[in-house]
Amino acid sequence: MIWLDTVIQGILLGGLYALFAAGLSLVFGIMRLVNLAHGDLIVLAAYLILIIVTALGLSPFTAALVAAPIMFAAGWTLQRVVLNHVLGDDILPPLLVTFGLSIVLQNALLETASADSRRLSVGGLETASLALGPVNVGVLPLLTFASAVAVIFALSHIIRHTRLGRAFRATSDDPAAAELMGVRPRRVFAAATALAMVVVTVAALYLGARANFDPAIGPARLIYAFEAVIIGGLGSLWGTLLGGVIIGVAQTVGGALNPEWQILAGHLAFLVVLLLRPRGLLPRAVD
Amino acid sequence: MINRRRFVQGSVAALAASRLAAPAIAQGAKIKLGYVSPRTGPFAAFAEADKFVIDKFVNAEGSDFEVIVKNSESNPSRANEVARELIVEDEINLMLVSSTPETTNPVTTVCENEEIPVLSTVAPWEAWFIGQQSDQSDPTSWTPFNYAYHFFWGLQDIIAVFTNMWAQLETNKKVGGLFPNDGDGNAWSGPQGFPPKLEELGYELTDPGRYENGVGEFNPRINEFKSEGVDIITGVPIPPDFTVFWNQMKQNNFTPKAASIGKAILFPSAVENLGEEGHNLSSEVWWSPSHPFSSSLTGQSSRDLAEEYTAVTEKQWTQPIGFAHALFEVAKDAMGRVSDVSDGDAVAAALAATQLDTIVGRLAWDGARLPPFGARNVARTPLVGGQWRHKGGGKYDLVIVDNKTAPSIPTGGEMEAIR
Fold first, then answer.
1. Minimal CB count within 10 Å: which of A91, A191, B195, B392?
2. Composition of chain B by helix, strand, coil, percent to 5
3. What is the ipTM of this complex?
């Protein structure tokens, strides 16, 4: 029974990793931009939710609804004002810019919000659990996983069935040809980053509800997100969910065998997938 | 007409001139203290009170000290770098360093090599002394320092405090360990740490093994604690990991009678993050407003200093305030006993001869309560045990519940079981 419990906990943990990774996957899939500040943007969104919670007295879930449009606008501005200027054939400038952004965000948050670790309190929900047959499942991890599935479902729906999604796909395949057809790549990129920031807000909600956050915590959250994106197949959103779940399950199973193997098991699963399927499990297109 | 080239040339000349002029201004001036602490990074909470303490010291009337503050960024190699800057460029007379071995150890090592006197605190003394030896596994090779002095408590103190607290409760003497794979976790769970002492006192330790910091998933460990039926949890996790651990334990409908945790719940903000679930968690207390000591600088009692901190910063008191303050107490006292403050050997000798009643208790490097190898460089400060009591609205007070290790520090209540 312990094993069933371990695997279920791992799947739910994978939902959290997939939430962290979904925004990264979206941006990378469309503009081949590796956003090294993604973890810090999640922390920024968590502080934004916290500010709204304290100022307006809302629950974190409602506050996230208020924060989402603000982050959408921030993402749009970030792409138009900064990132569009560095996108090009050379992949180094955007990497350096997002790396710098990561440092700027961390230090700005430290100056304004102090080093105190903070948390989004969801009123008893964090310790609540459901008895599903023989195993106890936390309500919050369950909600996290459900949200991850919902976010990825919504994003794939947008990409497959809307005008914006068609522009996303066209720009991703060939920006020059898309431009000839009347798509403006820079606006498409801005929309993609803005959308990614909404996903970041959802990730921030669950990051803050699950554990403490402080200005320095962002980069540590990034590594599993990267691994989930890569083993899922670059640009594939359902692949990202699958990648998150594989890493989550590998970690809990490894941890049940020996706590020292917990992190290692996740990385090993990543390496094994890379060896067997170098392009990931569900590669979206030929690059 | 100013073009770019001329502007650059001009500024370079101006810069050079100001640099050349600098030593002339500094001459015959104040005593220079260097101060290194982790102002940013994962240990930034330890250094949060620094600004308050330093401002208070420098702005005191008739202060003939200049304090040059550098940030170690919680990073050992950065700490090493800024220590060199302070010694070479700022030509400090005495180095002060505080908060976690990641900062205190590299700074102390640099100072010892450069023959600059250094005063260090807020790192368990074994981690400070043994952590700097070239062969940590061979006690016969350990050599004392000539310029480095440290004051804090040690691992044996915290083991005594935790086990004394548990002895106040009716438990089945089964302990679950939450030790990460880092310097603290390995020391706590190693042969010098908890296991031998727990065995001696008749406790049974369930230790599933070291985990990586930031792992964020503890269900396998909690299942093991649950099946062993442990009544007590102890460990030294980082705050985010402890929050996840504690919530996952509650999700599993498992509550121990006592949880004595080092590091993760030192600061009120960390306990507040647990909502109402932090009630009666216990931790080590190195300094509090009820410590019966007063400052040699201002005459303030511990309570006065803590209240002033709250008045100035609008924040609840934290334990590092007292120790940061004591650094400057010792610095001023020692510098007052040397004729030439630029003579490193004389300053080191003055530090060694210190006998001062400070806000953290009496400090003297006389080897009291220490094994021979640490006697010369370490002053051991008292440690007691406290419990966080929820006082409504998600706010907590730290109440001292066990003082068997230092009876002069009054308790504010008795150890209570977690429900």
1. B392
2. 40, 20, 40
3. 0.83
Which CATH number is B156-286+383-402 given?
3.40.50.2300
Helix spans in B276-387 (H):
302-313, 320-335, 344-352
Write out pLDDT tens, residues B333-376. 999 999 999 999 999 999 999 999 999 999 999 998 999 999 99
Interface of B with A (CB under 8 A): 40-42, 44-45, 47-48, 74, 181, 208-212, 214-217, 219-221, 223, 239-241, 243-244, 247-248, 250-253, 267, 269-270, 272-275, 277, 394
Cβ proximity of A6 and B219 under 8 Å: yes
Distance CA B174, CA B231 (A): 6
Which one, of B215, B56, B51, lies nearest residue A267 by Cα? B215
Number of domains into which chain A is organized:
1
Strands (E), B146-187: 148-152, 174-178
Residue A104: CB atoms within 10 Å = 12
> Which residues in chain B touch residue A59, judged by CB atoms under 8 angstroms apart?
none
* SS3 category, A28: helix
Residues of B in contact with A252 (CB under 8 A): 217, 219-220
Q: Read off the amino acid at residue A76.
A: W
Range of the domain at A232: 2-88+139-276
CB A202 within 8 A of CB A151: yes
User: Looking at this protein, which amino acid is placed at residue A48?
Assistant: L
Q: Identify all chain B residues contacting A262, using CB atoms and an 8 Å cutoff.
A: 211-212, 215, 217, 220
pLDDT in tens, A180-200: 988 898 999 999 999 999 999
Which chain A residues contact residue B266 at CB under 8 A? none
Domain at B17-146+290-380: CATH code: 3.40.50.2300
Q: Is residue A98 part of a domain?
A: no
* Residue B267, CA atoms < 13 Å, CB-side half-sphere: 22
Interatomic CA distance for residues A215 and A40, integer angstroms? 8
- The reply to whether A285 falls in a domain is no
